[in-house]
Amino acid sequence: MTEPLAYAQPGREIGRRLDDDLAPVVIVVDDDDAVRLSICELLESVGMASLAFASTRELLDADVLDRPGCMILDVRMPGLSGLDFQNHLAASGILTSIIFLTGHGDIPMTVQAMKAGAVEFLTKPARDQTLLDAVNRAVTADLAKRGEARTARENAALYQHLTPRERQVMRAVVQGALNKQIAYELGITEVTVKLHRSSLMKKMRAPFVTHLVRAWQSLPADLREELVS
C-alpha cells in the first residue's frame, strides 16, 4: 500500500502536531498526485496538519477516520466515488466534515452532497483562500459535533446514576411542571419532590433548570423515552 503523504508543523490556528491525536488534521483524498501535493503544501503553509491519500481504499486501510478535523474529498476517483464514500461514512456512523473538490461538479451532484451533510462543494481549481475558509468552517463544525457528542456521553453516564424516582422528577421538571404538580402526579409530598430535585440536579451537574433541560435534550432517545415506574 502506498504510504500517505504527511505534513505537519506547529499551527497558528487549528493545526498543531500530526502525532497529537487530539489535534485537528485535514485528510486529503484525490487520485491526482499534483492536486494532493498542492493542497497539502497550502495547508502546511498556514500551519494545518494534513494526511494525503490517492483513494478511499487507502484511507480506510490507514484507520485515521476517528481523528478530529475534516476531509477534502475528490468526487470522481477509481473505486468508491466521493459521494458513495460519503454515504458509506454516514452509514457507519462517522460524521466527518467533508469538503468536496471536483472538476466535474454539476448542480444535482452538489445538491446531493450538501443534503448529505457536506460543508462545501468546490470546483477545481479552487482559490486558495476559498479552500482555506472552507477548511476552517469544516474543522470548526467537526470540533463542535465532537464536543456535543462528548457532552451527550457524559450526560448519559450521569443520568444512569439517578434513581428511578429522580428520573421521574427530572422528566417532569424539564417538561415545565411545578413542584406541587409533580407531587400530585407522583403521589408524594412537595418537600420530597424538592429533595429529589436537589439531588438529581447535583448528580447531573446542573446548577440551573436551563442546564438540566439541555442535558435532557442531549440524552439518547431510548433514555428519554424509557418508562420509569
TrEMBL record:
Domain HTH luxR-type: residue ranges: 155-220
Tagged with keyword Transcription: yes
InterPro entries given in the database record: CheY-like_superfamily, Sig_transdc_resp-reg_receiver, Tscrpt_reg_LuxR_C, WH-like_DNA-bd_sf
SUPFAM superfamilies membership: CheY-like
Residue ranges constituting the Response regulatory domain according to the UniProt record: 25-139
GO MF terms, alphabetically ordered: DNA binding
Entry keyword Transmembrane: no
Residues with the 4-aspartylphosphate modification: D74
Gene Ontology biological-process entries: phosphorelay signal transduction system; regulation of DNA-templated transcription
Highest taxon, organism lineage: Bacteria
Keywords: DNA-binding, Phosphoprotein, Transcription, Transcription regulation
Gene3D superfamilies cross-referenced by the UniProt entry: 3.40.50.2300, Winged helix-like DNA-binding domain superfamily/Winged helix DNA-binding domain (1.10.10.10)
Record protein name field: DNA-binding response regulator
